[in-house]
Amino acid sequence: MASYHRILLKLSGEVLAGDSSFGLDMSAISKICREIASLTENGLEIAMVVGGGNIFRGAQSGEGYLDRAQGDYMGMLATVINSLALQSVLERLGVPTRVQTAIEMRELAEPFIRRKALRHLEKGRIVIFAAGTGSPFFSTDTAAALRAAEISADCLLKATKVDGIYDKDPADNPDARLLPRITYVEALQKQLKVMDAAAFSLCMENRIPILVANILKEGTLRDILIRGKQVGTIVHFEKE
After folding, report:
1. Which CATH number characterizes residue 24's domain?
2. 1 lies in a domain?
3. DSSP output for 150-175
4. pLDDT tens digits for range 159-215
5. For residue range 76-85, what is the model confidence (pLDDT) as tens digits?
6. 211 falls within a domain
């Protein structure tokens, strides 16, 4: 399996809620942060984008009372809350961490500046990119793909509650098969929902491999990024 040095880690907001459907589960966050911290001990450069679905999901909320743009801005604020929580726990573990936001809020975090983010990574700091892209109508998956391209990440690791990408929805199909490796073209042909179209296109155009794995299984990140094991699914540019 390919070795990766600079990783963009995309965390869904749901994994921060633990077994709940809403809010922040600090024990779950601590467990995730300990695993992330162990990666920096091995010299890996880690940047992160986190969703906000555990607090507010702009595209699906409001029940007709909110317009889409307003809902998306509220979702961006939710990602800032999650990012600050991650920063606090990581720094308690002794890992220097910076939060950069796509919408300026200087009292809380740095504004997103690409060259500054790169310098943080080179110095061994974790950088958490918050507030999505800063524009409505773009998902945090798209923000992750955009930031991965901007920092020249070696891969985008989408850490979720599922084991990887299946040939069909495992919730509805008990015979669904996990796909360990798949090309971008195959994913498009089979209409597999790896990410939304904008995020997927950005990764494909910039030849950034996408890894999808279950972060709730202890040791997953170390297995993939340090031990080089095949875990979950890798979406790559062409057959090897």
Report:
1. 3.40.1160.10
2. no
3. HTT-SEEEEEESSSS-BSS-TTT-TT
4. 998 899 998 888 888 899 999 999 998 888 888 888 888 999 999 999 999 999 999
5. 999 999 999 9
6. yes
